[in-house]
Design goal:
By secondary structure, the chain is an alpha/beta fold. The chain has eight helices and seven strands, in the order βαβαβαβαβαβαβαα. Helix 6 links the parallel strand 6 (about 130-135) and strand 7. Helix 1 runs parallel beside helix 2. The protein starts with a strand and ends with a helix.
């Protein structure tokens, strides 16, 4: 079964489009028969995404550090909940259990998770296809900054060879399901 790791906020954000998009992402992942792997919390966009997948008969796996379970809550309806000791262990386990990554709007934690995966790819420790959902232009500045990092000589590969960016959640999830070797093929060309 394809497992899509979703990184997103533990808050809702200030615009209802974030919540609507998170719900749609969970729904589409379930409808396409993929397993949703996420941070295990019941709050914010991550809670919305997981609930949407469950409401559409999806398989959901959560990984949460023990110290966060009272802060973020946990969803007892999910297929499996893994309690870990640290944020680092959480990221490791999520990466091990997934073969694609979907990034929705979020804060520092979401960026930390994204850049951990990108760093692992750069160090050739994995090759997950990564989709960034740039809903409402949320990630425009980040995308521009990554391009600046490349132009300044700090990245070994063009960001678009590692990331697939779209405002269309269904197109993005379809890409992740249909192009599992996207990153691997681009890394082989280096």
């Amino acid at each position: 079964m394809k497992s899509i790791l979703v990184f997103c906020g533990s808050k809702m954000g200030n615009d209802s489009m974030y919540k609507e998009t998170a719900y749609l992402a969970g729904k589409i992942i379930a409808e396409k028969g993929a397993e949703l792997v996420y941070g295990g919390g019941g709050v914010g966009l991550m809670g919305v995404t997981a609930r949407a997948a469950l409401e559409h008969n999806g398989e959901v796996v959560g990984i949460i550090p023990d110290f966060l379970k009272d802060i973020e809550g946990i969803n007892l309806e999910i297929k499996a909940l893994h309690l870990v000791k640290s944020m680092h262990e959480r990221k490791q386990k999520m990466a091990q259990m997934s073969n694609a990554v979907l990034v929705l709007p979020g804060g520092f934690g979401t960026l930390d998770e994204l850049f951990e995966i990108l760093t692992l790819i750069q160090l050739k420790q994995g090759s997950w296809p990564i989709g960034i959902l740039n809903v409402g232009g949320y990630y425009d500045h980040l995308i521009a900054h990554m391009q600046q990092m490349r132009e300044a000589g700090f990245l070994f590969i063009q960001p678009d060879k590692l990331l697939h960016i779209s405002e269309d959640v269904e197109q993005l999830i379809s890409f992740l399901m249909e192009q599992p070797d996207f990153v691997k093929r681009n890394l082989e060309r280096l």
